[in-house]
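thread: overnight batch results

M.L. [08:02]
morning all. the overnight job finished for the chain we discussed friday. pasting input first so we're all looking at the same thing
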Amino acid sequence: MRARMLGLSVWQPWASLIAARAKRYETRSWRPPVSLIGQSLAICSSQTEAGLLVSAHDLALSRLCLRRLGRHPLPMGTVVAVVTVAGCIGTTSLAARRIGVRERLVGDWSPGRYAWRLDDIQPLAAPVPVTGSQRFFHLPPRVLAQVLAQIGGEA
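M.L. [08:03]
and the structure it wrote out:
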């Protein structure tokens, strides 16, 4: 029985782009803990609309969002997907230089940052409401049960 899962708050539209498998790296100013590599992580859309305002001013990003996410409102304050954190690379590493244009469009690849590789992306058909926080937080048991029911995990 899985008793715990960490959640990570991600601004929209980037959270939904992860769920749509259009974003496979999450860029951060900090590395994930080594203990998180290979573990499941809930991607939670934050409740702020700041990211929506930022993305609206980037024409290429706006077009990608329209193509991949449509015109309907994006879920806010919900778990939208479960991913496996498969690894981490520095944004100036040799491996980072091989990252494609689309992935660069949906992340902050400036020097000194870290790109977390996300595998086994499992979008939730029905996003589950959750109150997140900065960095990591533990999903409440009720939320975890609803998430696991959708991805076929152990409750």
